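ARCHIVE CARD
Drawer: 12
Card no.: 0347
Subject: one protein chain, sequence and derived structure
Cross-reference: see card 0346
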Amino acid sequence: MSFSATVKEELAAQISSARHCQLAELAALFHFAGGACENGAHLTLETENEAVARKCFTLLKKTFNIENVVMQNKTMQGRTRLLPDDAAEHKVIQALHLMDGTGSKVALNVPVNVLLIKNSCCLRAYLRGAFLCVGSMSDPEKGYHLEFVCSNREQARQLQSIIQEFQIESKIIKRKKYDVVYLKEGAGIVDLLNVMEAHVSLMKLENLRIVKEMRNSINRRVNCETANISKTVVAASKQIEDIILVRDRYGFENLPDNLRQMAEIRLEFPEAALKELGEHLDPPVGKSGVNHRLRRLSEIADRIRL
């Protein structure tokens, strides 16, 4: 099972105890996975996701005590009313504010009525329902990406605004005929999973993030140390080349004692670091002193080359 499917299974099992939150999540299910039949007069639910269907049945039963539900698979031709009972359907449509301005047609491809998402807990429930219907998430082992695929810009903007209510940044991009609300930051995705109360998935993601960050940190350190070693080797090779030139064409006997000693020590310990070279000198000197003497030897070599 993919990570995205795991998150959805967890969200499908999360049932709010408060009726107003149940209504908010039910509204999300209809706005993002609902449809209409018979000239737009009746509700349908068209989804291939069993988690969405189960959640819809559970919420209808808890909020309206409705058990007589007909499920229509997306791949089947035609549309079947979700609630064959007119009275039950009317009760659901009114409670979820699903009628258009004329009061004659079901209106779903519009932002959800703000009366259903006044509270923070209802916003959380609405986001759960939205993710169940149109949300997806990439494998965190490969990268961080979470998105909601909305049918129009108004729905996308409202969803982005709801996410922003929890101080989480998201962006909207046009993809073919859809408007996609997406997050690409690992921290933001973790926060959103927490908001939707997918706590088990959150912990799995956090564990993966920790391992990934540790791996990246180790790689950076290894790369840094490798670069430093390479830099030291190149510098040491240049120093030895300069010292051999000074020895052969100028003579160590013509150097001041401190430079002569430095030149001899460097030739004797070609792989030693500056600190180690300084400890071999008599008297010992620090890294800056060693570096100064080697630089003077290089200047002498450069004058010889002219």
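Annotation on reverse: The mean pLDDT is 87. Strands lie at 34-37, 42-45, 135-137, 146-150, 171-175, 178-183.
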